[in-house]
Write a structure and sequence with these properties.
The complex is a heterodimer of chains A (505) and B (253).
Chain A: H1 2-12, E1 29-31, H2 38-47, H3 52-66, E2 90-92, H4 106-115, H5 121-126, E3 149-155, E4 158-162, H6 165-171, E5 174-177, H7 178-184, H8 186-192, H9 203-211, E6 216-220, E7 229-235, E8 246-251, E9 256-264, E10 271-274, E11 277-282, E12 287-294, E13 306-317, E14 323-330, E15 335-338, E16 341-344, E17 350-359, E18 364-373, E19 379-388, E20 393-402, E21 410-419, E22 425-434, E23 440-449, H10 452-460, H11 465-476, H12 478-481, H13 486-500
Parallel strand pairs in A: 3-7, 6-8, 7-9, 8-11, 9-12, 10-13, 11-13, 12-14, 13-15, 13-16, 14-17, 15-18, 16-18, 17-19, 18-20, 19-21, 20-22, 21-23
Antiparallel strand pairs in A: 1-2, 3-4, 5-6
Helix pairs in contact in A: 2-3, 3-9, 7-8, 10-11, 11-13
Chain B: E1 3-14, E2 19-29, E3 33-37, H1 44-52, E4 57-66, E5 69-70, H2 76-81, E6 84-87, H3 99-113, H4 121-134, H5 152-166, E7 170-174, H6 182-195, E8 201-205, H7 209-214, E9 219-224, E10 227-232, H8 234-243, H9 246-252
Helix pairs in contact in B: 5-6
Bound molecules: adenosine-5'-triphosphate and magnesium ion.
Chain lengths: 505, 253
Amino acid sequence: MAAVQETIDRVKGIDVDQYRYGFETQIESEKAPKGLSEDTIRFISAKKNEPAWMLEWRLEAYRRWLTMTEPTWARVGYPKIDYQDLYYYSAPKPKKKVASLDEIDPEILKTYEKLGIPLREVELLEGVERPSAAVETEDGEAAAPRTKIAVDAVFDSVSVATTFKEELKKAGVIFMPISEALREHPDLVQKYLGTVVPTTDNYFATLNSAVFSDGSFVYIPPGVRCPMELSTYFRINERNTGQFERTLIIADKGAYVSYLEGCTAPQRDENQLHAAVVELVALDDAEIKYSTVQNWYPGNSEGVGGIYNFVTKRGDCRGANSKISWTQVETGSAITWKYPSCILRGDNSSGEFYSIAISNGFQQVDSGTKMIHLGKNTSSRIISKGIAAGKSQNTYRGLVSAHRKASGARNFTACDSLLIGDKCGAHTVPYIEAKNSSAVFEHEATTSKISEDVLFYCIQRGLSQEEAVGLVVNGFVKDVLQQLPMEFAVEAQKLISISLEGSVG
Amino acid sequence: MTALLEIKGLHAEIAGGRKIIQGLDLTVNKGEIHAIMGPNGAGKSTLSYVLAGKPGYEITAGEVYLNGEDLLAMEADERAAKGVFLAFQYPLEIPGVATLTFLRAAFNAQRKARGEEELSSPDLIKRVREIAKTLNIDADMLKRPLNVGFSGGEKKRNETLQMALLQPSLCVLDETDSGLDIDALKVVANGVNALRSAERGMIVITHYQRLLDYIVPDIVHVFAAGRIVRTGGADLARELEATGYAQYQSEAA
Ligand SMILES: Nc1ncnc2c1ncn2[C@@H]1O[C@H](COP(=O)(O)OP(=O)(O)OP(=O)(O)O)[C@@H](O)[C@H]1O
Ligand SMILES: [Mg+2]
């Protein structure tokens, strides 16, 4: 029917070049020599004044990596990456230690300003104005509690500023760049680093172990509820720099923390590699909520450029009654290869995965989760919403498994896909393994096309085609959006509409 | 008298070939209410879609003017901003989008398109609640996803709510009475009557005289096989109730 044809035509007119965050900051940077070798790794480790064991750890990972091959099982395709053609370390100059935000290169601050990241404490304390299109409590009355957010900004490879340090310190919370934690709390780092994602885990995680340059470290002491949302903003600025951050979050017994990661990268022709590792450890009765809003450059309308986002994220519910919840809003990157997972080791532990993955243009998404039930009476919940537009491919890939001893394991999985146009694809690849007969696993999946009649209904009321698609898609992902902290839900809602811009008209 | 809507010699077909509207002439002046009655499948809903700019129809001949402007040249959202409102025979459901969110999006989109200032959320909520009250729509309903799980009558009342909020200049009501119980029919008719004004015109599509007891039309048309075959006053509706459409169908064929 012609109605469908019209949307298809509009989808064809796609223009992901409208990428909002495509600007480059002119600052000098200090790079490691191009290419990867033991010398590169020694250079990085020396730059960071790391303890000797850390260098050894990296080198071991590197030697291991040399014996590994790049995985090919995901439904993504890309030209071979030349690992010798990348820079593995890039720090903004000047390198003098920053004591306060005022000492940060104003160019960098400007970058964050453009990104809309509230770096300045004062701004936060004054309460930044809420966007008017707030996510309302359903009857439209947006209650606006002022949430405080501590930001640890990772600009290329070095954390430039950490705000709210004092208040966190009072609560006993450690929140700092991992490079700093390696110097200030080496025992804690050594105790947990690599215990969730071992250096041998997979090609990209092993590479990360060898060359990671920075990232965040969080430790919440026993019984402490972190007094604010912790937030990190990653930004890839330098040409040809792979970004390899490493994040490690530990919630000790009875602790709680909510952490948000947001990412943007300037617009570039080359594909940039991003291979991060995130490890979460929740001890007895602890809870970690980890939210990601990812809007890295997806490449242009011809499919040139964009970020390769090959990320390993895993949480270990190590203690009894612990809980780890992943929420992700993935709208950017040329290729996303990412499976935030939970190891449900502790008895009665629970894991959650809430995901919105939007692909447009030539983007390829292969994302999902793994819920590994090991302890008794463990439960997991997976809600995945995939939206494919343009010529993109969007795959949900998930594993739910119950170990022989995992009696009473329960899982609920719902995967819904929405297609916009007929040049894109959505795929669902669930793997289920129950080695314990008491396991109860439920799986639901739907795939539908955006309804032309519904779009027309919206347009008849005055919405533009784009607004209509944005509204319908936001409704489609609502269950997941609700999982995000309020402030970020607002951001995410806007981002979803922006990333679908050009999918119509 | 100024013509609000002028349809001249309109022919329209479903993309792919089937001819539905076949030589339609109709003029609606400001302040008038026109009722259109006709057998199932005559093309009444199709006419409403063509006026609203739904994709999938091809206009093969004819002209349509809204306040003298070429309506067929406008995109559907532009027509909405110019004041064309269609109360759907089958309103659509939008999962996950609260009714109020939808109303705000629509209201502000139209304002923006007209270069007017958007209404703040609290003001809008107040306005919606007041209208909802007159239509016996529960405030809780406004929080529910639009039309999802609404009963047939609730959906029709919701269409009326939208119309009252958006204050269109041309209202096309496609069987807004179907599915309404007697009390709801009165409530909806009151809502529609409240919108009657010297500046506004309405086309009320219905199968039943009953609705026209409450919304009294100025002119009644019999629509069969894609065009108007007879026009009269309010009594024509009563006559039709007695005689049915058989004579017109043979006439049209
Ligand atoms: N998309 C379509 N494809 C094919 N035929 C269609 C399509 N839409 C409408 N029709 C046909 O066009 C004719 C007119 O339909 P329309 O819905 O306009 O009638 P109506 O007068 O509103 O009828 P009712 O009183 O039953 O609501 C019908 O025969 C219908 O089956
Ligand atoms: Mg009809």
